[in-house]
Every structure is written in C-alpha cells, then in structure tokens.
Amino acid sequence: MDTVFLVLLLIAAVVVANIVYWKFDNIPIAFIQIAAGLLLSLFPIYQHFELEPEIFLLVIISVLMFNDGQRTSLSRLTHQFGTTFSLAVELAILSILAVGFITHLIIPSMPLALAFALGAIITPTDAVAVTSITNKMLVPSAVMGTLENESLFNDASGIVALNLAIAAAVTGQFSLISGIGNFLYVFFGGIIVGGILGSIIVSLRLRLINMHVDAPSVMVPFTLLTPFVVYLISEAIGVSGILAVVVTGLIHGIQQDRLRLTSSRLQIVMTSTWSVVSSLLNGIVFVLLGLSLPSVIINLHKHDTSSVFILFGVGILLYIVMTVMRYLWTNWDFARIRAWDKKEKHVNSTVMAYSGVHGTITLAMAFSLPLTLNGQAFPYRNDIIFVATIVILTSLLVPTLILPRLLPHQVSKYTEAELAAAKAKMVDDAIVTLQTRHGNSPSASQVINILDGQRTVEGHVNKAKLNIIFENCFELEQQTVDSMLKNNEISDLNADLYMRVAQRTTLQYQQNNWQRILLFFRFNVVGKFSLTKQARQRRKTFHDMSRHTGATKNEMIQRNRQMWQEMAKVEKKPYQKIISYLNQSLINDSKNNREINIVRRSYDERHRRLTRSFKEHENIESEQNELLIEAFQQENTYIQSRITSKEFSTELGGALYEQISTDQLVYLQSINEE
Known about the structure:
Elements: H1 2-23, H2 29-40, H3 53-70, H4 74-79, H5 81-106, H6 112-122, H7 127-134, H8 141-171, H9 176-210, H10 216-237, H11 241-258, H12 264-303, H13 307-331, H14 342-354, H15 360-367, E1 372-373, E2 376-377, H16 381-406, H17 416-438, H18 442-452, H19 463-486, H20 492-509, H21 513-530, H22 533-546, H23 553-588, H24 593-611, H25 614-644, H26 650-673
Antiparallel strand pairs: 1-2
C-alpha cells in the first residue's frame, strides 16, 4: 500500500506541475517538475525512498523509447541515415571517451570504467526537452528532424556503452577488441531481435484488426504491453533491449501510418493514450530528480564537504566540452545538415550545439546505476547522479536563455480572436441553413443547441448573474404553479412533483454551493411542511406506489409514462411564462446575453424531454442525427467557400476543419455507445 501511495503522489506532483506550467509557460516544464519533486522531498514518507534500477529501465526507459520509435518518420530516418549514424554513434562514442578521460583526469580516484559510465549517461540528448524550450521559436526543420533522429539512437548508444562500462567495473578488466565486439553484438543484435519481434507483434496486431477485434479496450493494452515484452525477451537473449524496443516502435509507426484511415477511432484513442503515458513518465523522471537531489547532496557532504563544489565544476566543464564538440562536429561536416551558405551552416551548427539538451533518458540512466557492486555499495553512485543532474540543469538553462536570441519567434497565421469569430460565422451559417430548410421543428431546435456548443466561449460566465436568473425563473415557476393550484387547474400532487422537477433544473446549474444548500433546504424542508395534509398524503401514496414490487414491468412503464405526461401538461404554462421573461430580459439586459442563453437552453432542453412521447423518441433521435450530419456537411462547405474567396486563410480553415472532424467523430461515437 505504501508503494501505491508513493506512486500516486508522484503522479499528483506531475499533474500539479503541468497545471502550473499552463499558467507560467515561459518556464521550461522540467524546472517546474523538479521543483515539485523538491517539495515532495519534504514529506517524511519520501525520506528513504529508492526505486530499483531495473524498474527504471523496464517501466520508464523502454516505454519512452518505444513511443519515440513509433513517432519517428522512417522515410526521414532513412534519408538522413548517414547524419543520424554520425551523431548518434560516432559522436556519441567520442563524447563518452572525452568525458571519461577528462573526469578521470580531474578526479583520479574515480576508476576509468566509472568515468566512462558517466560519459555514457550524459551523452544522450532529449528532443522532447528541446521542443519544450523551443515551442515558441522557429527551429529550422532540418535541424529539428536531425535532433529527433539523433535522440532516438544515441539513447541506445549510451545505454549499451553504460552496460559495457559497468561490466568492466565489475570485472576490473577491459579489452578494446572484446569491448568493440561486444558493443557490435549488443547493438546490432538488439536491432535484429527488435525487427523480428516487432514484425511478429505487428502481424498479430493486424490479424486481430482484420478479425474486427480492434476495440480500444483490446488494442491499447496490447500495444502498451509491447515494449515490456520486447525488452524482457531481448535482455534475456543478451542483446540491447532498448534498441530492440526502438526498432519495434519504428515498425509499429509504419503500421499506424497504413491504418490511419481504416481505423480512425482506434488511432485517435491510441495517440491520446501514448501522449498521456509519455508525458506522465517524462514528468515522473524530473519529479524524481527533484525528490532525490537533497539526499544526494547530503550524502556527498558526508563523504567530503568540498566534493559538491568540485563535482559542480566538473558538470559545467563537461557540458561545455560536449557543446563545443557538437558545434565542431556539424560545422566541419562530420554530420551534414542541409544549408545553403556558410551563414546558415553556422546558425544550424550553433542551434545543434545548444540543442544538445539532456533530459529524461540521462536522468533515468543515472538512477539505473546498480545500488551495489561486487556485494558492496556502488562507488561514486551519488557523485555520478549529481554530475548528471548539473549537466541536465545546465543544458536546460543555457538554451532557454540563448536560443530565443538566435531563433525568430513563431508568428501564428491567425489569432484566437480570429478563430473564435470564424467559428461563430460558421455556426451561424449552419443554423440559418437548418432553420431555412427545416423550420423550428423539435429536432432542428435540438441540433441548433448542439451546434451552439461549437462556439468559442469568450470570457467567463458571470456566476452571480446566472444564479439570479435561475432563481428568478424558479420563483416565476412557483408563482405560476400556485396560481394554477388556486384555480384548480392542477392537483396538489402534480404541483409538488412538478416543483421537484423545477428544483432539479435549478440545482443542476446553480454555481454556488451555499445557494444549492439553501434552495434544497427551502424546498425539501420548509416546502414539505407547507404542504396541505392531503398533499402530503398523496405524496406518500405516490412513493408507496413507486416502491411497490408487485407491479409488472409493463405496469411500471405505463405508470411512469402517465406521470411524465401529467408533468408535460403542468409544465406548459410555466414554460411559456419563463420564455417570455427570458426574451424580455434579452431585450432589456444585453450585457448578460451569455448567462440568459444558458438558462434558456436548460429550460428548452427540459421542455423537449417532457413534451415528446416515448414512441416518438427513437424517430426524433434518428432525425436529429441526420440533421446534425447535414449541419456538419454545411459547415465544411462554408469553410471551403471562404478559403476559395480568400476570406479565410488555409491555416485558419485547417483549424476549423479539425474542429468539425473532431466534433463529428465524438458525436458519432456517442451514438454508437448508446
């Protein structure tokens, strides 16, 4: 139970960090997540928290790498294979060697094998972290594509090199020839095994889809389990489980592209699921960094009070060395990036250098270091984690400060206000078309209400004003029903039942909890005692009849139908009074149109539910579906005509098309689930 609670707190910290980032998006989200972890470290429950390294590799790294693989364009990867291999393998190996020798030179007591392990940890780059920093900048497409391809494979290079370094530390021996041979076996063996397992799993997945076993409840868990299965099998064989997972992800990405239109609903669910999972895992890693940082510093102080400053300097120096190497590597054409002149080449190389951000994988690899080595505590584990942390933080901070000065800011092709105005025009056109073709039939009115929900809500609803309008409507209903009682138009029981329906309408939209309590108390306590003795007896009789278990199903249905037919008769006059009041309010109080329309829609919806008969229900629903599809088609036609006439830009039209497609898919899905 403690473990579950610890994990839930980590997830909660990620969610809170995401909320804070939504308000302060100028700060990289990684910093906010680290701060959330620092706050969690104050909780006593986390004082002795440790996560097994194997869990890091299996649960976090393998899943993230699989997702990176399936999101990578294979055609772009193939086209840029030479550049990708040069950065992800050749430069990665040279960086590992450079970091290892420099670290061993500064800290001679650290074994060379562990210095190389540090190099393997801090070499991998994180394209996701780069995107979070540059999301408001125009990064050259060739540079961004190169960064994404590089991060996909230098992660695997780093992990393979880390395993070799740890193996050398365990045995105390390292042979260059055997090391290279082992590296090639583990590296290319992982690629081959990943290709075989990926092909088998994708074939099985396609077979299930062809058998129409493609429900999200089956396919989503099936895909989520894939990286775990591939990783465990590959590691059991002795090859790189991470590379196998990457290749399997690439094969899955190819299949998803082919099935993009044959199983749209599944693709949307799958994309959304992986987006949430990867975001959550990335966030958890940075929260764990903040959570572990205080204990790492405390342990370093216990070891040597000056070690923190020495390691801090080592981290800064290593970041500078790797940044310079990245610039020279691309500027000297060891890794070619398309550029039309020397100036563009210099800019691309500079952006590549500063975009060598180290993030999730680096941190996860640092935490994946064994807790023990040859039966004793792993030497320099805290030192390596601390240096990796400094490199991560520096690599996040430096581009955050420098890249905005090098890259132009993104300029949106349209503003939010333009999008909102275009949506309003689109919806208005569809509504006018429906009214012209179908009048004010119940189905058309319902579809118009649904279409009205496509509008972009500008500003906030005035909750106090909304409450007042609902309260006034409720009072008007009460007065009308009392008048009908005095004129013997309705019975006490029907009046009581109707006011319960009215109360539910008001409570459903009441925004203030205190007002909900007062209204509930007034109607259910005060109102109950204000009933006549005869009315209370009728209410009791009605409840006794409702609880009667001897009635057949048809009798209960007939009784229920009769009750709602009575409610429809009672509701007719109060509804007319309310609509008249709201229409007059629209004329006299134009500043609160939004709140008045919300109240109007709620009473219109209740009126339709009460007035339509059960036999008409299915026909009305079917007609409503047809009208809504017709409305969506009209909206598409409207957008196309405005793009043709140059009133809407292509980008604005694309955003509106996306809105319509999503709305239509969600609505049709809701029909299938009913």
